[in-house]
């Protein structure tokens, strides 16, 4: 459109001034009157949340990379037997996290395969430094009934993170209706899902599968990297065939990781919904780290906001206490500060967790409905902030 106007204007450059201006207005008006395609109606507002430019880039990437990656999940040989059972193959380790990312009440299964003879390097803060050739798999599924897991589940997608010579890449696969395999889906997808919720009420939603470029929206800091498998999030006991053992100790014993310290010296993230695992503050901070700090950290995409939500932040202002927003626009919900101690309903942080409005909800990708349980946790945390901070709020 703009190219056509440009050529028309070149032809009009020698036209008398009295004719030139009306001609320009006519061109602009005609260009604006062109019929636009009808809007696509989606059941989930977030399904249309990605910019058009991003979708165009994804389409180009799809054509260029379609034959670059394995076409089916089964090609990775991560599982044995019937694929839908997700039973790890020899040399593949299933792992669990203390606190997990909320993804619209979907369940997740996580496995990792480290190449034979190579080790991941321990890091007390960042994700473990896995060697080239490592494959990490995360499969998303929905239990048919959240009150009774024996009623089965529907596998939706599997996201592969693979460490190559040039860095990490994220590759999406969508499961077929027969639940026999998942197919490479570089352009992403929107899949309708339904389940019986914990309150016994049926729920429906649209699950968004990221495209090839969307993976970088969460995993890209200075470079693309895993998020979940940090030492403090892996530091927990889980059940193995031989019995219960700490994951870090097990990985060290199996020769998968180097330089593991004594467990009493290793950091440990609280389990956000388990009061026995830590204080209210520790559990709230754990949830914010896992769900928000992949962007809100000193090196993340939201670093310019000055809001840093990783658990090792000690500056309360950086955490959001009495912090004014940076270019948040309507995302503030009309509130003035990130956190107002004792006043959750005046805190921007809580508003962004409670809203589902595109452009205001946080996290901005991967969540489209409200996580009622974590909202209750963050609300309680803000309500219970020290009285001295509440008095400071009253003086503002």
Describe the structure.
The structure is a single chain. With 396 residues, this protein is an alpha+beta fold. Helix content is 25%, strand content 18%. It has helices at 2-11, 17-32, 52-65, 215-219, 231-234, 247-253, 280-292, 316-319, 348-354, 372-383, 387-394; strands at residues 93-95, 107-113, 120-121, 135-143, 153-164, 167-175, 182-184, 189-196, 202-209, 237-240, 243-246, 257-258. The strands form four sheets. The chain has a six-stranded antiparallel β-sheet with strand order 1-2-4-5-6-7, with no helix packed on it. Strand 5 and strand 6 (167-175) form a beta hairpin. Helix 7 (280-292) packs across helix 10. The protein is globular, with a radius of gyration of 25 Å. The termini are far apart. The model is unreliable at 1-54 (pLDDT under 50).
Keywords:
single chain; 396 residues; alpha+beta; 11 helices; 12 strands
Note the beta-strand portion: 15-25%
Our Rg estimate from Cα atoms comes to 25 Å
Largest sheet: 6 strands, antiparallel
Give the low-pLDDT segments: 1-54
Let me know the number of strands: 12
* Rounded average pLDDT: 83
